[in-house]
């Protein structure tokens, strides 16, 4: 299991590992969080070094003559006053530092929220729903037929803020793309406030569930892909299309099997009779980069492994193992690979 | 001497507690879906010769709380609620009362799901994996309090008009038209 994951990670992120660090910010909000982080880091480092230095001085320094005096008795008033002064000054500095942190933190929170205060009635809304253990992503459109449903991959245009609306299907999850934003909890049965994502540089940013949500919490990741506006528009247009009719006889047979075997009970493919809403929408599954919530790269081999026995890769996930004859499996794979 | 006795007692208690873990056992590696029914479902008790041994043994998940909650999830996701509603019935017969047209035994419920029944119940054999059918069966039996009280859910995560399965009194099955055959 861990071998598979490690190999998958290597394959998945060979060459261009997607950014997954709060210290590699790619948007205005993450930049504020990053500067807050550095402020904490430098101040805390300085405090740590000063405390260690004071400790070292205290250990090394010779004791004053009155302290070295043999008889343990009451401390002389002069020494007592000096100690009181030192403690008072240290307490005052600590309180001051904590207030600086408090104001810096509040300021960061307000700056992050300011993106949502301005009027952006024309902004795009993406609805993200957490499931055990994957992410459902819907691009909201007033025209129902123009809605786009995908999974584990959020495409956004560079430089434009996108409204994110979150919900949870089962337990508490947390939406976290460290390069773009802080953590946002997804609470079942509770509409949390919308927030905004904005990427200023094109790139692939990795996100991860940040609230323990069960057996496969660690394998509940996703990718945010920031594209230049024209590429994003082309992507959205392609996703709005229903699945293309398979071109080869093998893929056509795969479609038939997909709809009439158990796949369609849970998965939907727009444009066919498969309408299950339990698992991820597979209308354009071949266009996605990863499988199983950014656990595996989207290759034919991994897809095959996943269909036959996903429990070996991600134990406890709701997809049951499937027994398929070799020919049937090949047909279904050919069909799924045709869903660009 | 007394200390040894205390330790022995603690050990015994630990093992007694471990026995309860069966309730929460989770098996992820389940056999894949069968695409053919291995054994034909009998719809009548009529048969030549001696009657076959009874098939009213317990289902594999009747004592497992996790499987029952999985069964509830599948019951909703596979749209059993579409006809049977949350046990109250509507298009299909209610599942929370004492009336069992085709038998209340785990095997009979399993067969009903796999093979379907006349007047509307479709057959899910070959679509829903056998393992999941048994989970749904375990859940369906909790609706009328047939399952073990130790395993039935004490509360649900969603709003519900009726009391939890655990507080549902066990209804004595009555009016079984066909005494589960075989």
Detailed description of the structure:
The complex is a heterodimer of chains A (340) and B (182). Chain A is elongated. Chain A is an alpha+beta fold. In chain A, the strands form 3 sheets. Chain A has a 5-stranded mixed β-sheet. The longest helix of chain A is centred in the first third of the chain and has 41 residues. About 2% of the residues of chain A have low confidence. Chain B is elongated and about 70 Å long. With 182 residues, chain B is mostly helical. The C terminus of chain B is likely disordered. In chain B, 32% of the residues lie in helices and 0% in strands. Chains A and B meet through helix 8 of A and loops of B.
Spell out the blueprint of helices and strands:
The complex is a heterodimer of chains A (340) and B (182).
Chain A: H1 2-13, H2 28-60, H3 65-68, H4 77-117, E1 125-131, E2 134-139, E3 148-151, E4 153-157, E5 162-168, E6 173-176, E7 184-186, E8 195-197, E9 203-209, E10 221-227, H5 229-240, H6 249-260, H7 263-266, E11 290-291, E12 296-297, H8 300-313, H9 326-338
Parallel strand pairs in A: 1-5, 4-10
Antiparallel strand pairs in A: 1-2, 2-3, 5-8, 6-7, 6-9, 9-10, 11-12
Helix pairs in contact in A: 2-4, 6-9, 8-9
Chain B: H1 2-19, H2 65-77, H3 81-84, H4 106-115, H5 130-143
Mean pLDDT value of chain A: 87
Outline of chain A = elongated
Write the element-wise H/E pattern of chain A from the N-terminal end onward.
HHHHEEEEEEEEEEHHHEEHH
Distance between the termini of chain B: 58 Å
> What percentage of residues of chain B falls in helices of 4 or more residues?
25-40%
Report the biggest beta sheet of chain B as strand number plus sense, adding barrel if it closes: none
Question: Gyration radius of chain B, to the nearest Å?
Answer: 19 Å
Which strand order does the major sheet of chain A show? 3-2-1-5-8
Percent in strands of chain A: 15-25%
Give the radius of gyration of chain A.
Answer: 28 Å
Secondary-structure class of chain B: mainly alpha
C-alpha end-to-end distance of chain A: 29 Å
The major β-sheet of chain A equals: 5 strands, mixed
Supply the helix-strand structural class of chain A.
Answer: alpha+beta
């Amino acid at each position: 299991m861990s071998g598979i994951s490690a190999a998958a990670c290597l394959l998945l992120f060979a060459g261009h590992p997607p950014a997954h660090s709060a210290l590699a910010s790619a948007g205005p909000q993450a930049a504020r969080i990053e500067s807050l982080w550095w402020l904490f880091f430098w101040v805390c480092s300085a405090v740590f070094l000063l405390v260690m230095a004071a400790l070292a001085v205290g250990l090394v320094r010779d004791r004053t003559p009155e302290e070295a005096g043999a008889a343990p008795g009451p401390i002389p008033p002069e020494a007592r006053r000096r100690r009181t002064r030192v403690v008072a000054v240290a307490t005052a500095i600590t309180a001051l530092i904590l207030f600086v942190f408090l104001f810096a933190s509040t300021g960061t929170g307000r700056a992050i929220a300011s993106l949502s205060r301005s009027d952006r009635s024309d902004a795009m809304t993406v609805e993200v729903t957490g499931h055990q253990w994957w992410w459902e992503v819907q691009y909201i459109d007033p025209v129902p037929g123009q809605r786009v449903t995908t999974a584990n991959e959020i495409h956004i245009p560079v430089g434009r803020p996108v409204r994110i609306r979150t919900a949870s299907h089962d337990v508490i999850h947390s939406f976290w793309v460290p390069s773009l934003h802080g953590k946002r909890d997804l609470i079942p049965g509770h509409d949390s406030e919308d927030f905004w994502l904005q990427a200023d540089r094109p790139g692939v940013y990795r996100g991860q569930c940040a609230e323990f949500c069960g057996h496969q919490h660690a394998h509940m990741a996703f990718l945010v892909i920031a594209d230049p506006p024209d590429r994003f528009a082309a992507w959205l247009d392609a996703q709005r299309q229903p699945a293309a009719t398979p071109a080869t006889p093998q893929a056509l047979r795969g479609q038939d099997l997909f709809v009439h075997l158990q796949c369609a009970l849970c998965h939907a493919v727009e444009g066919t009779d498969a309408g299950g809403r339990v698992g991820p929408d597979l209308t354009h599954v071949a266009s996605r980069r990863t499988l199983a919530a950014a656990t595996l790269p989207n290759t034919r081999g991994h897809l095959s492994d996943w269909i036959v026995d996903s429990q070996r890769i991600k134990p406890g996930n709701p997809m049951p193992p499937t027994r398929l004859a070799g020919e049937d499996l090949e047909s279904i794979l050919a069909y799924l690979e045709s869903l660009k | 001497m007394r200390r040894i006795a205390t330790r022995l007692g603690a050990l015994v208690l630990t093992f007694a507690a471990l026995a309860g873990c069966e309730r929460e056992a989770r098996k992820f590696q389940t056999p894949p879906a069968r695409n053919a029914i291995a054994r034909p479902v009998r719809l009548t008790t009529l048969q030549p010769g001696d009657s076959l041994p009874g098939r009213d043994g317990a289902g594999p998940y009747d004592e497992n709380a996790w499987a029952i909650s999985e069964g509830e999830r599948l019951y909703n996701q596979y749209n059993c609620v579409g006809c049977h509603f949350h046990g109250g019935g509507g298009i299909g017969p209610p599942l929370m009362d004492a009336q069992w047209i085709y038998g209340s035994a785990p095997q009979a419920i399993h067969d009903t799901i796999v093979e379907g029944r006349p007047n509307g119940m479709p057959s899910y054999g070959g679509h829903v994996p056998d393992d999941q059918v048994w989970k749904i069966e375990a859940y369906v039996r909790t609706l009328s309090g047939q399952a073990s009280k130790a395993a039935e859910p004490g509360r649900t995560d969603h709003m519900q008009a009726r009391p939890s399965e655990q507080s549902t009194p066990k209804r004595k099955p009555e009016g079984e038209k066909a005494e589960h055959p075989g």
